[in-house]
Fold:
Amino acid sequence: MSTNLGKWTPEEIRSLIDEENGKIDPRVYTDQDLYELELERVFGRSWLLLGHESHVPKAGDYLTTYMGEDPVVMVRQRNGSIKVFHNQCRHRGMKICRADCGNAKAFTCTYHGWAYNTAGDLVNVPFEEEAFSGFKKEDWGPLQARVEIYKGLVFANWDPEAPDLLTYLSDATPYMDTMLDRSEAGTEAIGVMQKWVIDCNWKFAAEQFASDMYHALSSHLAAVVAGLPADKDLSSYEPHMKGHQFRSKWGGHGCGFYIDAARGSHRIGPIVDKYYSEGPAFEKAKERLTPLLPYDRMATSHMTIFPNCSFLPYGMNTVRTWHPKGPNQIEVWAFVVVDKDAPQEIKDELARQNVRTFSASGVFEQDDGENWVEVQSALRGYKSRTAPLAMQMGLNLEGKNNPDFPGKTSYVFSEEAARGFYSHWARMMSEPSWDTLKPQS
Amino acid sequence: MGYIETPILKLGVVAYTYEGSDAIRFWIKTRGVKGMEIMELIKPFKWAESSSSLELQHEIEQFYYKEAQLLDHSQFEAWFELMEEDIHYWMPIRMNRVGREVSQEYAAQGKGSHYDDNYETMRGRIRARVSGVNWAENPVSRTRHLISNVMIKELEEPNTYEVASSFIVYRNRSERQSDIFPGERRDVLRRSEGGLGFKIARRTILIDQSTILSNNLSVFF
Structure:
């Protein structure tokens, strides 16, 4: 692997994250050299969420997206598999496909007319016979990424040395399954990507979904008001206090969830809440998932798969990739999943509740956007970038692990998963080889 | 908690009781507008065969200017009173599609949107907005709603109008945040007694952005 360390030594990178004392160096959110290194060492080597397999149901269906800042095309093949290749013609670097999604028999670069089949093979070069000698088309197809699917979610990875997806997901899969494996029918995505721009570092968003139930009590009061019955106000709102946070044993993944009540009717509306909390679909989910975890005790939940895939199980069901656009900006690309065998009225209602809650206009999401922008703005300051930020919640707090739930758990209001997220980030940034980085069995 | 289909209300209403509350809330399904399918509102506005009367044109433009003033002066509850109970407030996602697929530029209803609200969920949004804890709009933004290109067509249903208009919504926020949201509104208006003379039964917002170029859409259109 090439090195792109800029001014940072591996020791300096490791010192940015002080897990033992719960301190984080704010330059991880602002430094251009660190960002360039992230593109290489984090986004160039991690399994990245691109979409749901139901986004491309038929042969030739495609969507264009990004891996880090590299544009890619995700295409359904005739044999049913999905390919992901660099959305860049290797002649003069033009984007091969400039639509968001659609169905294609081939992709033709509009610059000079080089044409690719849906597998990404270069199949036609105009005037090849007249103008080229000894040109090998098979050597000049776009770069191909590895593709693996976890229960409907399509992930891709540029690095041939990276562990397979299941190894990469480590012990986080039971928590993913609370959204993705409630039914043998699996899930489907409803509709297309919602996209919007937030001027913040990608790690704020990813970390929050990994590790921050805490912020909801302050940030999202208005969203609570929006969902309260007409005859109730905030004075009747009592935040739920019971729950846990999960930190994966490897890989920087994290999840938090309430247990024993705190159902989500004010978050997702009573119809979706009922579907996710009682009745036949819930009973089926409980039966399928109970061998993994006490599903019926869990409620509102948040999760991040490192680095930039986040989602909210238990009926909110937004799934998103936080695409980095420089150290100071992201694009949120979000979609909704639902049990494939859910009744149509549940799918319709869930889609509407998703837009109401978690979308650019969502009553939850709009306040997140405000927070992250203001944090990033403050980080322009010298003092802001040199004074460490506190990441100490749950540190040295014993006795919060709940053995009823799989993996390492702590209290629901904790930064244990954040410490896991940033520790793994520091390892990926400072360890160039998978020999040391991969999970040691 | 549960919900039941109820025959007691005319509009095709689902009533449900809320967990921990005796209150019954009403989930109002969209009531039809005669001669109008919602997906029609993403297709190009069909001009009326003859121009609307000067008086009607004036009335509806004045209604829009007053509506804009309510929004630009944070009179959100008064603005909400302009909504009919069967309101469908919808901003479909708009995509980059190749020319031969341009008819699929807008996501179909339920297949991806930035707003997809009925009366009840809009009421929730308004409550949140005036709660004082909607931090995305507290401190408050400065907005300007400019409405133009108003074209009116009378619908089959009496006193009901399909209206297309162009808008530019400018938001200036905090110290330097500046957002411009241009687009087209496709409304169905019904003449009303009192108030501002009309109520909004449908509002489809065709925004001229694919990726929303802002950190949120905490503004109304």
Observations:
- Chain B touches chain A through 52 residues (CB under 8 Å).
- Strands of chain B lie at 2-5, 13-17, 24-28, 83-92, 113-117, 142-154, 160-173, 177-191, 198-207.
- The CA atoms of residues 31 and 161 of chain B lie 16 Å apart.
- Residues 1-30 of chain B have pLDDT under 50 and may be disordered.
